[in-house]
């Protein structure tokens, strides 16, 4: 299926949910009541409110974690794209088919920050 989606209903398109702005500017609102990981309020195509909770377990737990995206498909397994920043250095991590993605992410991010600079790859 084009776009990396396994089923047509998985595909995102412009007619899907869109962020709602608290001041009408169209920017997403992040609610603070979701704890350190937060929530994002969206409005659906028919104006319905949709609240999404961040499921990225690194946020609020791993020092320097900024976020990015978690995912799962039967083909790719548990996946994670993570971004962390420490001391002005950013590390971007991509894990595919990683059954223990949270522990592995912490391990690889720690190794990347300890290394200081330069890219490297590791198998999950």
Provide a concise account of the structure shown.
With 124 residues, this protein is mainly β. The protein contains one helix and seven strands, in the order E-E-E-E-E-E-E-H.
What are its keywords?
mainly beta; four-stranded antiparallel beta sheet; 7 strands; three-stranded antiparallel beta sheet
Give your account of this protein's structure:
- The chain is mainly beta and 124 residues long.
- It has two domains: 8-54, no CATH class; 55-117, no CATH class.
- Helices cover 12% and strands 33% of the residues.
- It is built from one helix and seven strands.
- The protein has one helix spanning 101-115, and strands spanning 18-19, 29-31, 39-43, 49-53, 65-73, 77-86, 89-95.
- The strands form two sheets. Strands 1, 2, 3 and 4 form a four-stranded antiparallel beta sheet that branches.
- The protein is globular and about 50 Å long.
Q: What percent of residues are in strands?
A: 25-35%
Distance between the first and last residues' Cα = 26 Å
Query: How many helical stretches?
Result: 1
Shape: globular
Radius of gyration: 17 Å
Summarize the helix and strand pattern as letters.
Answer: EEEEEEEH
- Structural class comes to mainly beta
Main beta sheet strand tally, sense and closure: 4 strands, antiparallel
Total tally of structural domains? 2
Spans of at least 5 consecutive residues with low confidence: 11-36
């Amino acid at each position: 299926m084009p776009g990396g989606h396994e089923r047509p209903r998985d595909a995102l398109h412009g007619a899907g949910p869109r962020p709602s702005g608290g001041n009408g500017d169209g920017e997403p609102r992040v609610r603070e009541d979701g704890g350190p990981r937060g929530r994002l309020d969206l409005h659906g195509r028919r104006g319905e409110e949709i609240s999404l909770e961040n499921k990225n377990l690194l946020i609020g737990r791993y020092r320097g974690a900024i976020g990015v995206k978690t995912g799962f498909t039967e083909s790719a397994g548990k996946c994670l794209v993570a971004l962390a920043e420490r001391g002005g250095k950013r590390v971007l991590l991509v894990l595919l088919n990683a059954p223990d993605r949270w522990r592995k992410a912490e391990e690889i991010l720690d190794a990347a920050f300890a290394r200081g600079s330069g890219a490297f790859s590791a198998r999950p």
